[in-house]
Amino acid sequence: MAFCLGIIYLTTSQDSNTIDQNIYKLVVIGFIFLNIVIITGAVWAEEAWGKWWSWDPKETWSLVTWIVYAIYLHARHTREWKGRKTAWMAVLGFLVVLFTLFGVSVLLPGLHSYV
Prior knowledge:
This protein is mainly α. It contains four helices and no strands. The chain has one domain.
């Protein structure tokens, strides 16, 4: 949803504070769930393989995804980024999510590869 709103924000000629606020709220919600998923995945990995983190490509790109959204949230709060910059970050974040979900599984060998 944040990606879609980011595209809408970038393609409209007017600045819309409402769209920007909604992007932010959706990113916060998504970031909370991303934290939960990474933590529960690490707990499961500890139970299944005996280690929390193995630097598998999927795990590494999950961290990259987390970092992209953490940068978004950090820049929004400390640098007061709003508008086009944050819309671009929302779009970039979603593209990284897509690569993490699909690209890593097909292109990079590892425990989570399906090739």
